[in-house]
């Protein structure tokens, strides 16, 4: 009897060690991938900051040729480019402050657009970088990960915080979009799968809700209904939409350009259906690759596989969105989400 107990205990210990070893191996691999993502995000941010420094020197030469202001702006751009990593934030913040005082009326339209694009790319790259930092730290700081030292000797990633400058102008005003969270009777939302057509066949894929740009003079709800019909074939009355319930501001790097986007989200209940592609534009045929109905667990699985879901808070907000759709009314101003 004692022998059997010892054997059972030994088997249990072996099973526990195998499970722990498998978990540790998988977690270490995931952590390694997150560190690679962090390194790549810093490289992208560093490149965006370097490009902004080049544009800043062009602005100094064009707007303030031979003046102390121009020399000061050029010097700040040089200092930001040469600054070591620990001093980079301060140097870039000083450059941001100087760029914010530039009188764009003194610049040609092409250079104004170039400056706006450089600022937008820095904004986008910084947010991607800080997202990578957040995700890596979240895993590194788990108790078991720290106890087993799965992070190895790699230094902990650090956030990069600088002032964001995004003036409202013709070049940088946000693109207004109306989007629809279509929810079926099972509480699942219809998502489309897309990728950046400018990035080629190996582009990273993401998932997003139905919707698109609001046309000049078009009301939000009418734009949402139109986009829904174009992208899915589903024709609904404006009265079937509830909202907008959410608002999301973001930077989008898509098809070779960076834009600010302001999205307003409606919710709508519908029977499950198979979307059609007949109403989609030529561009939509290029970048939309499929669709699926997802609950929160399915969206979490997509994210775990490296395919982002937008808006980022959709999994946690889906139940509340279904409740709003069932109630038939939205309360108050749209909630700002990520």
What does this structure look like?
- The chain has helices spanning 2-63, 68-82, 85-100, 109-140, 143-147, 220-232, 282-287, 296-304, 314-327; strands at 175-183, 189-195, 205-208, 210-213, 242-254, 257-269, 288-294, 308-310, 335-337.
- With 338 residues, it is α/β, with parallel strands linked by helices.
- It has two domains: 8-147, de novo design (two linked rop proteins) (Up-down Bundle), CATH 1.20.1440; 175-337, Nucleoside Triphosphate Pyrophosphohydrolase (Alpha-Beta Complex), CATH 3.90.79.
- The strands form two sheets. A five-stranded mixed sheet has the order 4-1-6-5-9.
- Strand 5 and strand 6 form a beta hairpin.
- Helix 1 packs antiparallel against helix 4.
- The longest helix is centred in the N-terminal third of the chain and has 62 residues, at 2-63.
- It is flat.
- Residues 166-171 have low confidence and may be disordered.
What is the strand and helix layout of this fold?
Layout: H1 2-63, H2 68-82, H3 85-100, H4 109-140, H5 143-147, E1 175-183, E2 189-195, E3 205-208, E4 210-213, H6 220-232, E5 242-254, E6 257-269, H7 282-287, E7 288-294, H8 296-304, E8 308-310, H9 314-327, E9 335-337
Parallel strand pairs: 1-6, 3-8, 5-9
Antiparallel strand pairs: 1-4, 2-3, 2-7, 5-6
Helix pairs in contact: 1-2, 1-4, 2-3, 8-9
Brief descriptors of the model:
four-stranded mixed beta sheet; five-stranded mixed beta sheet; flat; alpha/beta; single chain; 338 residues; Nucleoside Triphosphate Pyrophosphohydrolase; de novo design (two linked rop proteins)
